[in-house]
Fold:
Amino acid sequence: MEAHGSGIRRVYLLLFCVAGIWSAYIYQGLLQETVSTKRFGPDKKRFEHLAFLNLAQSVVCLIWSFLMIKIWTNGGDAGAPWWSYWSAGITNTIGPTMGIEALKYISYPAQVLAKSSKMIPVMLMGTLVYGIKYTFPEYVCSLLVAGGVSTFALSKMSSKITSKLARPNAPIGYSLCFLNLAFDGFTNATQDSITARYPKTNAWNIMLGMNLWGTIYNTIFMFGWPTAIGYDAIHFCKQHPEAAWDILLYCVCGTVGQNFIFLTISRYGSLTNTTITTTRKFVSIVVSSLVSGNPLSQKQWGSVIMVFSGLSYQIHLKWKRMRRMQKKRKST
Structure:
């Protein structure tokens, strides 16, 4: 009976995590799209300095992670030292900036879809550089994702979507997304290296270290010289408080989302988290199409389904692999 109650509590906690991740990141996506496309105030000006979102996000996450370490770990510092994140901080500053800047050139659904194809550069680099051999089903997943993204990219954007973009240019937008993926790959590899060297490092340590360097680098980039764009961003927010409020909510959503992701990984593992975040991306595209007025053609919807079929199949393969490993451990 006690085990049954424990199982129910785990299910409720998982549903709580799903609701938290979905609500935080779907709303953050809508806010990101609003800030990048909306014309604010009576002068109908756009917020051009989208890189400022990364600085604001880094500052909020830095403060939050610092408070969490003080509250939950009694200020303990057994994890990786703060200076060890300096290199990952560089790529984690440049990568997301490129992803956000892409919204000037392509729609939000296109950006989400492009950033969902992370497996393609990973498999390409694995094959060409490290000589890794992948299974036939893994190549099928990759081809579905690559085909879906390519078909979506080659589809003509509707005039309604084009009119909302600051500078419509699909090649530049998709190039920025794929560079974002490349930098993210280095960031993830560096984080794995840090946690391997310092096993006592927890999620809050990583969050603090990454956002500390992100705040430093973004501050230098945004305010490092008299004509830097950060001053224009601050001036715009003063003139348009509505934009400042959207940016604050964007940061809060990102911080809340990160907390739910860390909770999911700690209780259910990274594979469960991947499943939740992948389905969230699909829902984000649907919500963007319905709420933000980004109509997709039948061909584009077919591309979206193609990509998420490939991602779903990849997750299914990972679940099967994990079960086989668990059975092997039980038998030994």
